[in-house]
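Notebook, p. 212. Picked up where the previous page left off. The plan for this session was modest: take the two constructs that came back from the sequencing core last week, fold each one, and keep the raw output in the notebook itself so nobody has to go hunting through shared drives later. Recording the first one now, exactly as returned: residue sequence, then the structure token string.
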Amino acid sequence: MLKLDQIREDLKNIRYYYSRKELLDKAMQYSGRSQLLLTVDKYSNAIQYAPPRLLDVYYSLYINNHTQKSFADELGVTPDYVYKLNKELLLFFQKQLAEVA
């Protein structure tokens, strides 16, 4: 089972990838497929089984690069609620990725 710290690190790398996707994809044309893309694929496959609100959290925070504060403002909720949803997302990934391992 993946530890939550590893999932956080993976999500941080996924967020960075999507924030610089165009440049990184171009760089990989020259250097070959990065291990990072395997991680992106693994989490993309896992998120398909998430409930809609966790899918929204993943998409907003890690693909669209929103902060928890800006996402909370968009939803009209408190940052603490988004923090709670993000924690649920981490636990979802921990469970989901353990099932495919």
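Okay, moving on. Second construct, recorded in the same format:
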Amino acid sequence: MNNNDNSMNYLIVVDMQNDFIDGALGTAEAQAIVPAVAEKIRNFDGRVLFTRDTHHENYMDTQEGRNLPVPHCIKGTSGWEIRHELEQLRKDIAIDKPTFGSRELGEYLFEENKKQPISSVTLIGLCTDICVISNAMLIKAFLPELPIIVDAACCAGVTPQSHKTALEAMKMCQIKIENE
């Protein structure tokens, strides 16, 4: 990787929110990665951005709500909040995203890359098989020559099998998978 003085690494912490960890859509696997995610944030050399899955009271009237009828990450609720021990580590922006992949995140990174070359983007968080893969692919579309990395040890999927399937799909799309 080209990590000279003029380049920057980014860590994207995807949707490490209470509802995905031990709330409405929580899993044991999501709970298990919290310490590794905190360690990764603490030791990361570069900028750390967070995303927040963000829905509103009309969630059940949306396409996502009809397909996944479990209200979650409703803005302003405790389930929407980033896990406390991770929020304490946040020093940069959090991007609220109403969809699996965040156009705002892709546009932001595209503009930042114009100002100062980005040398890599690493994604961690939840859920590997929905929002992590969506954002990895979206960033790949905005910055196709940028190395994109997913740290598998800091991700969890809806199920262990769907996590593995998403990792395999990302590999096929030239996204580097670390710590499988």
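Notes on construct two before I forget. The first strand starts at residue 8 and ends at 14.
Flagging for discussion at group meeting.
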